[in-house]
Amino acid sequence: MIIKAPEIAQGWRESITLFICPQDETRSRVWFRLAVPDLDSDDAALLDFQRTIFLQDQPVLESQQPRCLPLHDATMREVHCAADRSSAAFRRYLELIRLDYGVC
To answer: Side-chain half-sphere of 25: how many Cα atoms within 13 Å?
Structure first.
């Protein structure tokens, strides 16, 4: 989840959240939640903003390699740094619950 405090209004917060549900090994359904203190824009403008944000992120997400996380490949060795701590913990959790696939 991304939360930010805009400079234009003291005390206001915005939140952009993506909820992602895997459909199969290569497809996921995404729900986009936008909460903003914008009382002036109509729904169409806010939807356009959501689409703009998602369309900027979509090519990055779709170009991740490997496309599927190597959860059970014993030959795959990764070197982690502190910034990888949460993703490494996530992969260990997926293995613990015996998930057969995961998407980056």
So the answer is: 8
